Amino acid sequence: MKKSDQHRDRIDVHRSPMLPGAITAALLCALIGSPPPLHAGDKDISGFDEITLAPGDTGTCNSSPCTVYLKMPPGGGNYEVMSSGDGSLGEYPAGETVKLGSFWSDQAFTIKGMDVPKAYAYIPNQP
Q1: Where are the alpha helices (DSSP H) in the chain?
Q2: Chain segment 73-100, per-residue pLDDT in tens
Q3: Is the bond preceding 35 in cis, omega lying within 30 degrees of 0?
Q4: Which of 22, 27, 63, 57 is CA-nearest to residue 43?
């Protein structure tokens, strides 16, 4: 085998078909635990010890616990608000900004009976 052929073979070894898969796996690992991507119309909210969210918002609180307020969508009557961490938080009137409580960890809030996106609150875990 010629020296030029050996050099070409050595270069081909570095062109591994597994490289794109490895890069994809590394990117996925980096994204695990990241907030969901923002979509058109979504807002990114941040605050120190409290945040006010509306459906579709993503909020980051810089302290723990964090008091979360939710802007209820317009409508009539009361709607139940669910938390991913605490279950049912209670029923609240449509069209009002309501205090959901203070939370020590990440939460996703759902309004049962209303076709609106979840609101996300990211709260640091602190001892």
Answers
A1: 3-13, 19-31
A2: 999 999 999 999 889 999 999 999 999 9
A3: no
A4: 57
What pLDDT, in 10s, does the model give residues 52-63?
Answer: 999 999 999 998
* Cβ proximity of 73 and 41 under 8 Å: no
Give the separation between CA 63 and CA 90, rounded to whole angstroms: 24
Query: pLDDT tens for residues 5-54?
Result: 555 544 444 444 544 544 444 443 343 344 444 333 445 677 778 999 99
- Measured at the CA of 123, the angle between CA 117 and CA 127, to 5 degrees, comes to 155
| Domains defined along the chain, listed by start | 44-122 (2.60.40)
Exposed/middle/buried for residue 50 (C-beta within 10 Å: 0-12, 13-18, 19+): middle
